[in-house]
Write a structure and sequence with these properties.
Layout lengths: L1 H10 L3 H20 L3 E9 L2 E8 L15 E2 L3 H15 L24 H5 L10 E2 L2 E2 L7 H11 L13 H15 L3 H13 L4 E2 L11 E4 L3 E4 L14 E2 L1 H12 L6 H7 L12 E5 L2 E9 L4 E7 L4 E10 L3 H12 L11
Antiparallel strand pairs: 1-2, 1-13, 3-9, 4-5, 6-9, 7-8, 10-11, 11-12, 12-13
Keywords: Signal
Pfam family, one: Beta-lactamase
Organism: Flavobacterium johnsoniae (strain ATCC 17061 / DSM 2064 / JCM 8514 / BCRC 14874 / CCUG 350202 / NBRC 14942 / NCIMB 11054 / UW101)
């Protein structure tokens, strides 16, 4: 088994073993597609080269026009981009991890003790502006002032560093801080600092008005479109759209230190067995450790992962989910590492 794994890791980009592995993955995707188990796209990189790319299920969307460049709403994978932009400012001495939120927004409760580091790692105590009175209320366009007021109204549920609770509000405020320092809208900053340097062709923040994007769907007897959130309400938090290939280019460049320095990347990563770092999360699949970020909105789900030891990255997006993303990825990783697996149940 050990020899077989080493053979795979060394020859994945070679023709013979790659064909065998791709066949196994194709069989898995065929099972999903044949049984209406989902709509999506998958990209796998090894040693910075794409070794697998496939889309599935889209031909079952009636009246929907798409091509290989059609983008998915990647939801909170956007937070990884926002964190990268924060750390670029830190590297350029325009911001510090211990900078207080009150330096920018003193009207936010507890802002005198909440730091940039707290906001990046979800230890700030700030809440989730997207849910008001138990309901997702950002499905219709609202003003930024309304969102800001909701963040203030929710306040904090604990003191900084007391616990870790995922906070959309913290990342929205980080985006606003980035815009203040650059004196530029978020979409233009993403273009300048991410898209142009990496030559991304299908990657955009919502205010850049991407036209070629998938909507979200659910399956009853057929795939039917559903109303998702209004992405202009979640800029810097969950608004970016991308292909899986461009997500893979992004995360590969991040781990090759082409976006931030090596020491910065280490700060971004979780410490030990912590789930959340400062812009990157830990995804352990038994002995195989990946870092990255996932994202979920009402109908679209994405994940971008990188394994440093084996230099394998996986990017996956779905706009019609019947198999949970984590389950999809777990089976895929078992296939890649030649482990036993069971095909997931399609509900």
């Amino acid at each position: 088994m050990k020899f077989k794994l080493l053979a795979f890791l060394s020859l994945l980009s070679g023709s013979l073993f790659s064909q065998e592995m791709n066949k196994k993955i194709d069989e898995y995707i065929n099972y999903i597609e044949t049984n209406n188990g989902g709509i999506g796209s998958l990209s796998i990189y090894k040693n910075s080269q794409e070794v697998y790319n496939r889309s599935f299920g889209q031909d079952k969307l009636i009246g929907v026009h798409y091509n290989k460049n059609t983008e998915y709403h990647i939801a909170s994978v956007t937070k990884m981009v926002t964190a990268i932009l924060v750390f670029k400012l830190i590297e350029n001495d325009k911001l510090k991890l211990d900078t207080k939120l009150s330096d920018f927004y003193p009207e936010i409760p507890n802002s005198k003790v909440i730091t940039i580091k707290n906001m990046l790692e979800h230890t700030s105590g700030l809440g989730n502006f997207a849910i008001k009175d138990g309901v997702v209320w950002v499905t219709q366009k609202v003003s930024e002032q309304e969102v800001f007021d909701e963040i203030k109204r929710q306040g904090v549920s604990f003191q900084p560093n007391e616990k870790v609770v995922y906070s959309n509000s913290a990342y929205l405020l980080l985006r606003m801080i980035i815009e203040k320092i650059y004196n530029t809208p978020y979409n233009k900053i993403v273009e300048q600092e991410i898209i142009k340097p990496l030559k991304l062709k299908n990657f955009a923040s919502v205010k850049s008005n991407p036209k070629n994007t998938f909507n979200s769907y659910k399956f009853t007897e057929n795939w039917t479109e559903i109303k998702d959130i209004e992405y202009s309400n979640v800029i810097g938090v969950g608004d970016i759209s991308s292909t899986t290939k461009d997500m893979n280019i992004l995360i590969n460049n991040l781990f090759q230190n082409k976006l931030v320095k090596r020491e910065t990347l280490e700060i971004m990563k979780p410490i030990g067995k912590d789930e959340w770092g400062r812009g990157l999360a830990l995804y352990p699949f038994k002995e195989n450790i990946f870092y990255g970020h996932s994202g979920d909105v009402l109908g679209s789900h994405s994940i971008a992962l990188y394994n440093e030891k084996d230099k394998i990255s996986i990017s996956y997006s779905t706009n019609g989910e019947r198999i949970p993303t984590n389950t999809f990825i777990e089976v895929l990783i078992n296939i890649i590492y030649d482990k036993e697996f069971k095909l997931p149940e399609i509900k």
